[in-house]
Specification:
The chain is an alpha+beta fold. Helices cover about 45% and strands about 15% of the residues. The protein is built from 27 helices and 21 strands. Strands 1, 2, 3, 4, 5, 6, 7, 8, 9 and 10 form a ten-stranded antiparallel β-sheet that branches. A hairpin with a 4-residue loop joins β6 and β7. The chain is globular and about 85 Å long.
């Protein structure tokens, strides 16, 4: 506590630390009336130990998170940068969602070895499949570094303030990682009212061990995505490998299975409504503090437009996937990524409208303003912040909309643009080279990269996507498009690009590499260098190095227009809104200290706890807390292709061959709980009262997707696949009992 009142600390930093202390105090009352809302920082979990015990937990805070001893924390890994996974054996066996490992599963699949359709199970460790680029990170410690980050900022504003904070963060991260092989990242919490450092140990050799077929891992497809009742066996199995010293190592045949500090035992116990549930993972993003105008903009304009863009892409991709097995495999992972957010957004809008979220925001803002006006000091600091936030949205929402549309068109849409971005990187790399040997090596790298890209690319499919999305982009953006999109129709642009561009055809691209000369880059550099020596008034605008390609030219024109118009304003908007939100959140914590407060998710490790329970989200409708194998067969009987099953599943279901994995004659498949989750919690373990694994979190109900903006305890539920169903699929369905034997089962 001494540092908290250090007279040498700047006045602003002390004020921020006081806000942080208020936040910590309010955490004690966070879940007194409802344990569902909020994503807790594990290093602060001792503040909630009593409340968690009241919900049935039998663990101590030290069991959950410890720096000095092994704890549950050490079994939870950040998987692939966007998901969560958990260690379940002493030999580094790792469980995560099927959709989290889907890119790796797809990359290993072919028409000859169709792991997507038929599944894959390594019989021995030698059969496990390497995955270059796949990372899994263990959190070493989480540390509050607010005081250190804000030290020395007194009197600083604007760029100078930000520079000092960045300088402090750089020193903190350097000191935390010197000589230990760890990485460290300091992140802002509550919009800069607090800062925490997360130190991690990252493993680079993570191999695919097993996956069920899509008919299990993706059972229900888009029909069931974000929907309850759910029957998806959304899991896959990996293994973490390390060097001989049990430390992270590059992928190597000499690596051995990692021996974890802790792994989760697997619970075979019967489950009951009201059982304690804890989800431990890396939730991505929530935005609970958005102003009423900001939420209105999202609901009325931004989300509907993005949904429409993805409607169009999916209409093409789904048709292509249905036309051949090769295209089905080629586009499986892409389709899943695009469709996941698309359906989530539709559910978000429905939920927010149902609860009248805009009116709720307006009521909360009125309460905030009334409280601020009740105290002269509060009024001076917080009196106008709500009005300022809403006015800022009105001023910059056009630029923010342009940013969202650019993301959908240039980064999610036609893959031609993805290849164009790679081309930009290639050109910049060549311009920095000093000799032809480097150039030849880079050409070889480009050939390898192109082989990987075109393996999963269909020109006809991409052409159709480009046509539809270009039409929609121009329609949505109006006059805010590059001149070429005003001069030519979408059809003309499509023909111009796809009839000649090296970016859309493998043969043309390889020929382009054959003909490209290092001397071309040397001549450009020489011309550029001579131009720079001239007086500024006599310099010519040489423009960037170009390859004289219609596809790359269109990319350059479109991205340049975006960077010159929407992007600068978006950066101003984000910066100003960040400061306003910082003030707004501080005001909420100070003026309403007895309310529930928790920091928005930001991809750092969090804990949420609740109960195994169903819900009643609509009038006359009740959702039970679990589903069974009987529901899989019932859905299959509808004839919907999303509910397709392979013969073995039907055979085992008919025989009711459940082994030791049944409960009261039923095989549970999925269950729901009142844990507050979001994207990034995919693959997170659902942990029981004694610290055992009871399921893998993988989704929310459609009514719950609104919880990224506003949590409603009566309707928001997370969805998990029951660990007993996972074990049944591995053991009885797939015959991979050797993997089950690795795990520690608790009856």
């Amino acid at each position: 506590m001494k540092n908290m009142t250090n007279p040498r600390m700047p006045r602003f930093a002390n004020a921020t630390l006081k806000i942080t202390m208020v936040a910590l105090l309010t955490l004690f009352t966070l879940f007194k009336s409802s344990a569902e809302e909020g994503m807790l920082i594990p290093s602060l979990i001792s503040a909630f130990e009593d409340d968690m015990r009241a919900f049935g937990m039998k663990l101590s805070a030290e069991d959950i998170y410890s720096v000095n001893n092994s704890s549950l924390k050490d079994a939870i890994l950040h998987f692939g940068g966007g998901c969560t996974a958990e260690l379940v054996s002493s030999e580094g066996l790792l469980l995560t969602n099927h959709h989290c490992g889907y890119s790796q599963i797809q990359s290993h699949s072919s028409v000859e070895n169709d792991y997507l359709k038929n599944g894959f199970w390594a019989k021995t460790k030698a059969d496990e499949l390497k995955n270059p680029g796949l990372l899994a990170s263990r959190v070493v410690r989480i540390q509050d570094v607010t005081a250190t980050v804000l030290f020395g900022i007194e009197g600083l504003i604007g760029d100078a303030l930000n520079a000092k904070i960045r300088e402090n963060i750089k020193v903190i991260q350097r000191d935390a990682t010197t000589g230990n092989g760890f990485s460290a990242k300091v992140s802002a919490f509550n919009y800069g009212n607090a800062y925490f450092m997360v130190v991690e140990e990252t493993f680079k050799d993570v191999r695919l061990v097993g996956t069920p077929p899509n008919s299990i891992g993706k059972f229900g497809g888009d029909t069931d995505n974000w929907v309850w009742p759910r029957h998806t066996g959304d899991f896959s199995v990996f293994r973490v490998y390390a060097g001989a010293n049990n430390q992270p190592n590059e992928i190597s045949d000499s690596n051995v299975p990692y021996q974890p500090l802790h792994y989760l035992p697997v619970s075979m116990k019967s489950k009951n409504t009201g059982d304690f549930t804890m989800v431990y993972g890396f939730p991505g993003t929530t935005e609970q503090h958005l102003s009423s105008e900001n939420l209105k903009f999202i609901m009325d304009q931004e989300r509907p437009a993005r949904i429409r863009m993805r409607d169009l892409s999916l209409s093409v991709i789904n048709a292509s996937m249905g036309s051949s097995d090769a295209l089905r495999i080629m586009y499986a992972s892409k389709q899943a990524r695009i469709a996941n957010a698309w359906k989530k957004w539709i559910g978000q809008l429905g939920g927010l409208k149902t609860v009248d979220a805009i009116q709720i925001k307006l009521d909360r803002e009125k309460r905030f303003n009334t409280m601020a006006a009740s105290n002269p000091e509060w009024k001076a600091i917080y009196g106008s912040v709500v009005q300022d936030m809403n006015a800022l949205v009105q001023k910059y929402k056009g630029a923010e909309f342009g940013y969202s549309m650019a993301i959908e068109y240039l980064y999610v849409g036609p893959e031609m643009f993805k290849r164009a971005r790679t081309m930009d990187q290639f050109i910049q790399s060549c311009l920095m080279m000093n000799n032809e040997e480097e150039f030849v090596a880079e050409i070889a790298n480009q050939r390898t990269s192109a082989e990987g890209f075109f393996k999963n690319y269909d020109e006809a499919t991409d052409r159709k996507i480009f046509l539809l999305l270009t039409e929609e982009y121009v329609k949505q953006m109006g006059e805010n498009v590059p001149a070429i999109m005003k001069e030519k129709s979408a059809q003309e642009l499509t023909e111009m690009v796809y009839s000649s561009s090296v970016l859309t055809n493998k043969e043309r691209f390889m020929n382009f590499l054959d003909e490209l000369k290092f001397s071309s880059f040397e001549k450009y550099k020489e011309k550029f260098s001579k131009n720079e020596t001239k007086p500024i008034k006599k310099r010519k605008d040489l423009g960037p190095f170009t390859i004289n390609d219609n596809g790359h030219d269109l990319w350059n024109l479109t991205i340049s227009h975006f960077r010159a118009t929407s992007l600068p304003e978006v950066r101003i908007y984000k910066s100003k809104m960040q400061e306003l939100l910082k003030t707004y959140v501080a005001g909420k914590m100070i003026m309403f200290a007895e309310d529930k407060h928790w920091p928005d998710a930001n991809s750092t490790m969090r804990i949420t706890y609740g109960k195994l329970e169903g819900s009643a989200p609509h009038d006359g409708m009740t959702y039970t807390e679990h589903t069974t194998l009987d529901g899989i067969i019932a859905k299959n009987n509808t004839g919907n292709p999303d509910f397709e099953l392979l013969p073995r599943m039907k055979e085992l279901a008919a025989q009711r061959s459940y082994g030791s994995y049944a409960q009261d004659g039923e095989l549970w498949v999925c269950f729901s709980g009142s844990n507050h989750t979001t994207g990034g919690n995919s693959g997170s373990p659902v942990i029981d009262a004694e610290g055992n694994l009871m399921g893998l979190n993988f989704d929310r109900s459609w009514e719950s997707t609104m919880s990224d903006f506003m949590f409603d305890a009566s309707r928001c539920r997370n969805i998990a696949v029951d660990i007993r169903y996972v074990m049944w699929v591995i053991d009885i369905y797939a015959g991979a009992g050797h993997l089950v034997d690795e795990m520690t089962k608790v009856d």
